[in-house]
Design goal:
The structure is a single chain. A hairpin with a 5-residue loop joins strand 1 and strand 2. With about 425 residues, this protein is of the alpha+beta class. It folds into 2 domains: about 300 residues, 3-Layer(aba) Sandwich (Aminopeptidase), CATH 3.40.630; about 120 residues, Alpha-Beta Plaits (2-Layer Sandwich), CATH 3.30.70.360. The relative contact order is 0.15. Helix content is about 40%, strand content about 20%. Strands 1, 2, 3, 4, 5, 6, 15, 16 and 17 form a 9-stranded mixed β-sheet that branches. Strands 7, 9, 10, 12, 13 and 14 form a 6-stranded antiparallel β-sheet that branches. The chain has 14 helices and 17 strands. Bound molecules: zinc ion (ZN). Zinc ion (ZN) binds next to loops.
């Protein structure tokens, strides 16, 4: 870091912004790949970024701690036997990803902590900032690895999962980062949950809503859970496209399309009544060994995913899916075969934190902007173990999980200022 920043006289918002730009730029260069950045889960880019930040923390006079899962904590001094406020996000990225996913949230906490420490401002409770490892599922097919490890939630299957390219086990990669794997395997919590007053994660928005509404930042109302079927099969019967009349056909594509249209109508109705829901059928195909222009398709394979903040909506949707399949089976002579449903619970964010974050934003002149999170975040792990949790989204153009993520530093400062105000008022 340049010395002007560490030896500045005035530690104000301008100082925070200049330091933010320096760190974002340095870490982008440090972890750059062919396109964008690669900060591999329990791998090189993630470790390089963590080491950079740890070194800078020492230069800024902060205290650095590493837990048994190699997550890193920053505070102004050691915190012993005291409740504290925890702020943070993850340090890893997807392969060839953008610079802001995860890093923005760690930096927001890190910069506020540095600002408070330099200005000798004490909050009502001490502040800890966490740089989590391993949030992205892109490397080992598992997400929230660092945060799950904190609460003793990693399973044997998680630890045995293999790297997308090298085939190396996650446990081995963790060990090479200094993780005490026996401790992780014993499913013990690495942290005294009782001491955490609350957890807040700032994150770039990974959808288009903030850009569309012209909101620099917004408060997250909840994190959607999901119901997933990876492979549903619709069986009809194959036949010559020219010879079989409509009433004798058992066309699996028409049946599948009918199902999706019906589910789209339900989605529309649920949404019109104020329900939170998104539906996707991201895989939808005939068997390519059999498909042909002039053949009535005998079989299709498709995925079906519903996401909502509300478990009752997810359950209702699942029931609707099954009942529509029954109707279509009767009307079109086909048969649907379901795989096992895989569920992931929605995370409830704390109502009081949401309100206080909205108040903090409003007092700084921002709109009371709020929305649910469609993507999963580490915050869901903290919320689901019972810690009061909140989230702030920062506007980000061009989507996420790609090298083109475009977060304006002014928007980052807007999100950071809301978080800072919330902490000071707490
Ligand atoms: Zn992320």
């Amino acid at each position: 870091m340049n010395n002007k920043l560490s030896n500045a006289k005035l530690y104000d918002e301008k100082w925070i912004e200049r330091l933010a730009i320096t760190i974002f730029d340095d870490i982008a260069v440090l972890t750059k790949d062919r396109h964008g950045v690669s900060r591999e889960t329990y791998g090189k880019g993630e470790t390089d970024a963590i080491n950079y930040l740890s070194k800078l923390a020492v230069e800024l006079g902060l205290h650095v701690e590493v837990d048994d899962a190699a997550n890193v904590f920053f505070s102004s001094k050691p915190i012993v036997n005291s409740r504290y406020i925890l702020i943070g996000s993850h340090m890893d990225s997807v392969p060839l990803g953008g610079n802001f996913d995860g890093l923005a949230g760690v930096l927001a906490g890190f910069l506020i902590l540095s600002y408070l420490s330099k200005n000798k401002i004490n909050l009502s409770l001490p502040l800890k900032v966490i740089a989590l490892r391993g949030e992205e599922s892109a490397w080992y097919g598992r997400n929230y690895i660092g945060s799950k490890a904190i609460f003793g939630l990693l399973t044997k299957e998680d630890l045995n999962s293999t790297h997308r390219k090298t085939g190396e086990k996650l446990s081995k990669a963790m060990q090479s980062c200094g993780v005490d794997i026996n401790k992780i395997q014993s499913s013990t919590s690495l942290i005294d949950t009782e001491n955490i007053e609350l957890f807040i994660e700032l994150h770039i928005e990974q959808g288009p809503i903030l850009v569309d509404r012209n909101w620099p930042a917004a408060i997250v109302t909840g994190i959607r859970g999901n119901n997933r079927h990876h492979n549903i099969i619709c069986k009809g019967s194959a036949g010559h496209s020219g010879t079989i009349p409509r009433y004798l056909r058992k066309d699996s594509v028409f049946a599948g399309a009918d199902l999706i249209t019906r589910m789209d109508d339900h989605w529309n109705t649920i949404q019109q009544h104020g329900g939170d829901l998104v539906l996707t059928s991201g895989i939808f195909h005939t068997d390519s060994d059999h498909h042909a222009m002039s053949r009535i398709p005998g079989e299709i394979f498709f995925s079906f995913e519903s996401r909502s903040q509300d478990v009752a909506t997810l359950d209702a949707l699942e029931a609707l899916l099954k009942s529509e399949c029954k109707t279509i089976e009767r009307e079109r002579g086909v048969k649907f075969e379901f795989d096992d449903l895989i569920k992931s619970s929605p995370a409830e964010l704390d109502e009081v934190i949401i309100k206080n974050l909205l108040d903090a934003g409003e007092s700084l002149g921002f709109e009371r902007a709020s929305l649910p999170s469609g993507a999963g975040h580490d915050a869901a792990v903290f919320a689901n173990v019972g810690i009061k949790t909140g989230m702030i989204f920062v506007r980000n153009d061009k989507g996420s999980h790609n090298p083109y993520e475009a977060m304006d530093i002014k928007d980052f400062m807007a999100g950071l200022s809301i978080l800072k105000k919330f902490l000071i008022d707490y």
